[in-house]
Every structure is written in structure tokens, then in C-alpha cells.
Known about the structure:
Layout: H1 3-35, H2 44-52, E1 65-67, E2 80-85, E3 88-95, E4 98-106, E5 111-116, E6 122-128, E7 133-141, E8 144-147
Antiparallel strand pairs: 1-2, 2-3, 3-4, 5-6, 6-7, 7-8
Amino acid sequence: MDRRSWLAVTGWLATTAAATLVGLAAVDLVGAGITGTAGGVRTEQDVARALAEPGAAPPRSERATPVPTTGGPSTPGGSRRGFVTAGGSVEAECGPAGVRVVTWSPAPGYRTKDDDRGPDDHVEIRFVGASDEHELRLRCRDGVPVRDLDD
């Protein structure tokens, strides 16, 4: 094999190796952006460990945080309002028959139990988790759903 052939094969191998490394780096970079983790998909043990860390769960709070909502038509003369607890979220509206729960969604690890969706003078949704529960009681004040603090 003459010197020119040897240089051509060596150049071709070097170019192929460089292209392969660049391609692998690009796939790793794009994969990290898609999955949100540098290593790709997390194992069940990684997820369980992350959930067991004290900072992983939202702080336990019975205070409901009102969240303004803009979705869907409300009852004439009434208004909708969202509330969020560590156990889940609720959207309620006030109307002529009182307050009623429009939608609710338990947080991961929680389920609803003993829900009274109305319409009535007050409604309540209870989110139950493995180690705690969060109850949200609502009523209307001036045509607006508010947290019922008379629990």
C-alpha cells in the first residue's frame, strides 16, 4: 500500500470517528433537553428516592390559595374562582342556588373522599393521601366563592 492510499484511509477513519463523536454528543444533548434529565429516563428507585426527600412534597398547609380562573362560562350573576391545597385543586362558582364545585383535581398521591359538590350553602372536597388529608370548604360571599373558615 503506497503512502497516498495510507493517508486517504487514515483521513477517512479520523473523519468518521470525529463525526461519530459529534453525533453522540448531539444525541446526548438533545436527549437531556427532552427528558429533563442528563442521563435520560429515571429508574423507579430514583423516583422513589426523589419523592421520599422532604423537599419533594409541597409544604403541608391547610390554607387554600385562591387562583383566578378564566375557563368556561359561569352562571349568570356568579363568578368562578380556583383554590389550591397541597392535596389538590378545586374550581367553584356561585350562582342563584349557592356555591357548586365545577372541577376538582387531586394532587399526585391523593384521592377525593366524601365530596359534597353542591349547589348548596357550602360545599366541601376532601383530598386524602397516604399520610395526611386536606379538606376544602367553600361558600359564597357577595357572589364570589370563598374559603369557609367556620370549620
